[in-house]
Design a protein that fits this description.
Blueprint: H1 2-24, E1 41-48, E2 59-64, E3 71-74, E4 80-86, E5 89-96, E6 103-109, E7 114-120
Parallel strand pairs: 1-7
Antiparallel strand pairs: 1-4, 2-3, 2-5, 5-6
Amino acid sequence: MAKRASCLRAILLLLLVPNAAISFAQTKPAVPQAPPSPTKGAITGEVFDKSGTPLAGAEIKWAAENEKEPGTVATDARGAFHIPQLSPGKYLLTITAKGCLPKTQKVNVKGGSTAKVHIRLKSPPSPKPSSM
């Protein structure tokens, strides 16, 4: 009986030790963003769903007014994104994520500064039941 209890304790320890290491592990800090140059600006932000949960993998398309070819960037695991080295001017962001309605947002970029945006996407309306 004592041998069985000792064996059970050893198994329990093997199961708990890796989990303890995982729970104390720290996530890698975000890469620090270099400040924009005096003639260039940047846009940084976060994308959330309607409940405030960060949306990883959301797509942000951006284009300056009168530009036809947008740039594209995706959010990281924390729902964050960064668009560096932008010429000063007005930009239109189009944000899309699976299971959410797309959203557009205008952003004014100034040289030497970073425009910050926080975007909350809405869920599509639930389909109405058909009446027969």
